[in-house]
Amino acid sequence: MATTALTPAASAYRSGLYEWLTTTDHKKIGILYVVNSFIFFFLGGILALGIRTELALPGVQFVDGEVYNQLFTMHGTTMIFLFIIPMLVGFGNYVVPLQIGAPDMAFPRINALSFWMLPLAGILLFLGFITGGAASAGWTSYAPLSEDRTLASVGPGQDLWIMGLTLIGTSSILGGINFLVTIFKMRAPGMTMFRMPILVWTVLVTSILQVMATPVLTSALIMLFIDRNYGGHFFDPSNGGIAILWQNIFWFYSHPAVYIMVLPAMGMISEILPVFSRKPLFGYKAFVFATAGIGALGFSVWAHHMFTTGLVFLPFFSLMTFLIAVPTGVKMFNWVFTLWRGKLTFSTPLLFALGFLSMFLLGGINGAFSAAVPVDFALQDTYWVVAHLHYVLFGGSVFGVFAGVYYWFPKMTGRMLNESLGKLQFVMVFIGFNLTFFPMHQLGLAGMPRRIADYASNVGWNDLNLAASIGGFVIAASMIPFLWNVFISLRNGKIAGDDPWQANTLEWATSSPPPPYNFDHLPEIRSERPLFDLRHGRTGH
Amino acid sequence: MSSSPGTRPSSGSILVGIVAVAVVGAAATWVVLNGSQILQSFFPPEPKTAQGHAIKDLYDIVFAIAAIIFFLVEGLIIWSVIRYRRKPGDDELPPQTHGHNLAEVIWTVIPTIIVFFLFFVSWRTLNTVEAHSPKPDLLVKAVAAQFQWSFEYLPADAPPDAKPLFTVNLPVGADGGLTLPAGKTTHLYLSSPDVIHAFYVPQFLFKRDVIPGVVNQFDLTLDASDAGQTFRGQCAELCGIGHRVMMFEVHALAPDAFDAWYQGKLTEAAATPTPVPSGAANGPKLDLVAQNVKFDKTDLSAPANTAFTIHFDNRDPGTAHDVDILDASGAKVFDGKDFPGPAAQDYGVGALPAGTYKFECSIHPALMFGTLTVQ
Amino acid sequence: MTTPSQVLTTGDPGHAVSEHSPIAAFAHDTRGGISNPILGMLLFICSEVMFFSGLFAAYFNVRATTTPWPPVVANDPVLTEHFNLHAEPFYALGLTIILVLSSFTCQFAVWAIRRGDRTGLIRNISVTLVLGIVFLLGQAYDYSTIGFGLADGTFGTTFYTLTGFHGAHVFGGVIMLSVILYRSLAGQFSDRHHDAVEAASLYWHFVDVVWIALFSTLYIL
Fold it and tell me: Which residue has better confidence, A342 or B173?
């Protein structure tokens, strides 16, 4: 597979299976994360196709009740915890030490441990499907439903879900600690904090969120496990417990989690837009402060997922939610004005970055509707929310991931991905994505709730659901040129060389792929674009 | 050898570009041709309550601001993509602008002002929607259980746990649903004995969670023009395997019609309930249990042309079930009366000719059904 | 132009530079500031603080919405009396004193090795370890005589979850201290090279602080 392509610069390396299983090299671990995450992306995608197949036409055709609930529960859980979060960690793992001129992460063995917890957790989660039923209370697992052993999770699936997520959370926390120590302590001389690439900043803030928020989820999971298995009463109203306590603790993590899911992707496109516009990122410092602001504000908005419970202090959370739009908008303008008056080259990484900008813009805007509490009363728990979350997480983060794949594949493998296939994938996934998720705005407004296996045939939802289902299959089809591209490029792709994109940051100042400890020597670091400075002398600055 | 970003577009790229333009063009054409219907789809349905009107007005404001911002920023992106392409062979760097303090201040301050405006406007609407009338015209408790709704009509000024004057057990249909007076204010309590549900009526632009251990409450003021209309409602919070079947209807009646209906219900509740035909002496007895919204059997058999009894044990507390028998054409040949559990009743079924029938619970037909073989 | 190898030649003169991988060398990097493993432990402790915050949040939520607290169980005055931890805090106070003492001895151990006093290190770590084990045994005994279980309403659930997870963390600390003791006996620490001792003691202090918060919340407030 990828093994042979990685050896050109490191002939003294054993790169067989044993090497991959025991490696503590951040580059290999990064690739392991990326490959593992893609596997779960496709598994989660298959679950999504199951959902869309059932919903294509009114009437229950294939799956009902318990099985359908398992499908969307596992789709959400897989995409969030086994795909997007680790995928971004994987890119961070590969790129961050290179970008700061470090030889590896601070704790390489813990890095390996963090990775290997993930396939194990994935197995635990999916084991539910063959042991009597996977978790089926939604990825949000609201109590008391998630404690209901008769009419919800019938098999051990919910307990496996709890265990799997606890393992993933541990991996996440350890990973966050690793990144923080690496970024704070292992930067090359000359790389002050305000000369770090933006991707490093976003990974920094993401890691703070991971370290501070994830343990709160762990506590919730443990309390749920105790309620389910040891006779506990945390969330059991009939014995003095509080049903909504679960939501409060869960969302205290899960809201910062959405920033964990998007900030590194924002960092990635913040690397790509300047390179393909041939100018620096507009407003670097403001961008850093905006990222920090989002991270901080992100801890204060969790109850906006609970507006319809009638049990949270609405004005505070509404205000905080509106406020978080300001730093997000600042970033949006920074990106747009990076393009402005630049000289744009429309390679595939830029196409996906542009897709990110447009789709995330839409997702941010449709989210603002829900910040207006009374409007949320109409939109919460409907397909409008499904549209919103997919516009920011798919249109945003996944497009960012693909931008990153096309951009850094040459560095990781030494070969370029094919541009025509890349553009084909972009067009297909862009069309498929919008075809799937745009109609969900209309569906939500018209009153279609989430998490239902079927809908009445006479309320006007048929055409939109069919369109969305067709779009889902177009997205699936778009993965074919992508996989084919990876396959042929690994064998026969154009040799990339050190710096195929004429980029700005340190990872392009070493070979593709880099040698085991990354750099033979480092250029002088006097700005956030050390390689640009080297190429143009200080006059280009 | 490092290649600079950007070379002549390949023929593959051109082909892809043409396909993309074609698709976008087709989409644009379709959009133009279906203009007003498409525009309507961006808005929620016409609201039917006073609270709903307030929410719709807020939505309109948010939508207007959202549309302006979207077209402005998307416009900048599209303009940049068109205007600032790098011409092939142009290797000169564009101006290396790092930032612009004034612009950055402006695009921080103005959005802040906009969001504060939106916050205040939505706070005001929230106060309107959440207001409780000091003297509502009607007091009803909606009970959401797995997997159906029932509605308890309470005396004036009663607390939520008061004994209801009467209860409507069927969530939909002419005999069921939540019947409310148009043009008047109903105060609703929400209660659940099991998991979290949500009371959602799309045409009211409103939902509220039903949380066990807590009684949520709100006012609904139906428009007077609603009289005679029925609105569909549905549970909007995942509540288990039967979540998708938890429908209900809201029937709006003009005040006189409502009073007549209300009096009728009071009379019905006061009357001694007619005994269900015990049929104990009639022929063979079949046992059927309803538990966890499921029958314990999916196959029953009975002798042809002989009256028989179904001993029906409903073990779901607070949840009404019944047993209906339908023939091959779907016509109902036996209509058992529903009752809430835990309770058991004997249904006396008249003689049926030989054949294959379907039996089901009329309240949960998607979850509770089976085959009755008569031979 | 500085190169990584120039940066990395600093290090403990007791170790040949060629024995270090570039990454390990960063741990000894004298560019200043806190060492990597200790920073890592501090961040880990932050994450653990957040974990206990979740549990405490649940406890305070339940307590704030339940009157009276401790709960009065209808038909079971014996259980109700057992819930009244305020009446008999002395045993738990004893456990508190033991744990606080162990924090002192742990700190003495750190000060000892900072001076190069290996004997002092070994003695104080041993005492800390013994005190930690005594705490655990004492906690187990308390569980067996306290008169209510985890399934006894929200009081039982929150009590056992909070103290149980604290106990698990003490157990983790005991393992850590055992490893430190073993390594101390093997002579692996010096005045210049004892990051693991510092890290373990930070963790042990954290565990002690959590107990003080627990004791105050459950028995005093």
Answer: A342
Task: Name the residue among B155, B126, B162 with its Cα closest to residue B51.
Answer: B126
- Point out the residues of chain C with pLDDT beneath 50: 1-19
Residue to mutate among B195, B205, B216, with most A CBs inside 10 A, is: B195
The DSSP element (H or E) to which A9 belongs, if any, is none
Mean of pLDDT values over A362-374: 96
Last residue of a domain, one of B219, B241, B270: B270
pLDDT, one tens digit per residue, over A113-126 is 999 999 999 999 99
A343: nearest CB among B90, B98, B107? B90
Residues 162-181 of chain A whose Cβ lies under 8 A from any Cβ of chain C = 173, 176-178, 180-181
- Which CATH number goes with the domain that contains B53? 1.10.287.90
- Are B55 and B205 spatial neighbours (Cβ–Cβ below 8 Å)? yes
CA angle A17, A36, A489 (to 5 degrees): 75
Which residue in this structure is represented by tokens 């209370």?
A137
Which of B243, B270, B297 is a domain's end point?
B270
What's the Cα-to-Cα distance from A513 to each of A216, A223, A504, A518, rounded to whole Å? 38, 45, 17, 9
| Residue B104 within a domain | yes
CATH number of A24-540: 1.20.210.10
Q: Take residue B102 and report the two structure tokens written for it.
A: 């004034």
Residues B224 and B309 in one domain: no
Task: Look up the domain containing B235 and give its range.
Answer: 138-270
- Model ipTM value: 0.92
Q: Is residue B61 part of a domain?
A: yes
Mean pLDDT of A161-190: 97
Chain B CB contacts of A372 below 8 Å:
58-59, 62, 118, 121-122, 125
The answer to whether B209 contacts A332, with C-beta atoms less than 8 Å apart, is no
Q: Please write the tens of the pLDDT for every residue from A57-78.
A: 998 888 877 899 999 999 999 9
Q: Is B13 a member of any domain?
A: no
Same domain, B171 and B121: no
Tell me whether strands B369-374 and B299-302 are parallel, antiparallel or unpaired. parallel
* Partner-chain contact A188 C46, CB within 8 Å: no
Pairing of strands B197-201, B185-191: unpaired
Identity of residue C217: T
Q: What is the mean pLDDT of residues A518-539?
A: 87
CA distance B44 to B77: 29
Strand ranges across the sheet with B230-235? B178-181, B247-253, B230-235, B197-201, B206-210
